[in-house]
Amino acid sequence: MSGDGVETGPLLTDLAFPYRLLGAGGNSRECLFLLHGSGVDETTLVPLARRIAPAAVLVAARGRIPQEDGFRWFERITPTRFEQKSILAETAGFAAFANQAAKRHGLDLTCATFLGYSNGANLVSSLMLLHPGIIRRAALMRPMPVLDHVPATDLMGTRTLIIAGAADETYGPFAPALVTLLDRHGSEIDARIIPSGHDIGDPDAAIVRQWLAGPMAIAQAD
């Protein structure tokens, strides 16, 4: 997705992760934390997020690990094997960041959705498993499991959407294992496979938008 014409605010560097805060000051309680894929930056998911939730506050965060002309969330060994110490450190850092950003900007994490793509989705699932209680709702696009050792985490009360690409030859084969893992730990799972590769686009936006209008959104409106 092109960064041309993307809604942007100033890059804020007052917390552990650089980020942009978009759409603040409105009446919407809805909030999306955006975690981009590898080799790009925090602006790349903004157009997709706006198709999903036009009125939401967006916290578009930037990974701290440089890669090519962009960034990623933790170090990798191969395309499907990852440096575990890096995952633990960056996930702990992001847990603190999410709490601090919510407090600073008056955001309610119980109303927030963490939208992650590829490496960003893998950070989100690791955050759920290593630091339970922060994420109530996660939308993971083209994810795979990355933790070698998973603690006995209770994810009851969380909702997780997993969207895999049928033609995603790198991550696609691993998506069912993540579905099983999060389900075993108690998360309510909605797993989809779409006719796509590793790229994301309008079909993903439509699925996430529909999923967000589900039971939790109804409960919040009551």
Keywords:
222 residues; alpha/beta; seven-stranded mixed sheet; 6 helices; 11 strands; 31% helix; globular
Structure, described:
The chain has one domain (19-221): Rossmann fold (3-Layer(aba) Sandwich). Helices cover 31% and strands 23% of the residues. The protein is built from 6 helices and 11 strands. The chain has a 7-stranded mixed sheet with strand order 1-3-2-8-9-10-11, sandwiched between helices. Strands 4-5 form a two-stranded antiparallel ribbon. A two-stranded antiparallel ribbon has the order 6-7. Helix 1 (46-52) packs across helix 5 (202-212). The chain is globular and about 40 Å long.
Biggest beta sheet attributes: 7 strands, mixed
Order of helices and strands: EEHEEEEEHEHEEHEHH
Q: Any idea of the CATH class?
A: Alpha Beta
| Secondary structure: helix percent | 25-40%
Domains, number: 1
The CATH architecture term is 3-Layer(aba) Sandwich
CATH-defined fold name: Rossmann fold
Rg over alpha carbons: 16 Å
Shape: globular
CA distance, first residue to last residue:
37 Å
Structural class of the helix and strand makeup?
alpha/beta
Number of strand segments:
11
Q: What is the number of helices?
A: 6
Give the averaged pLDDT, no decimals: 92
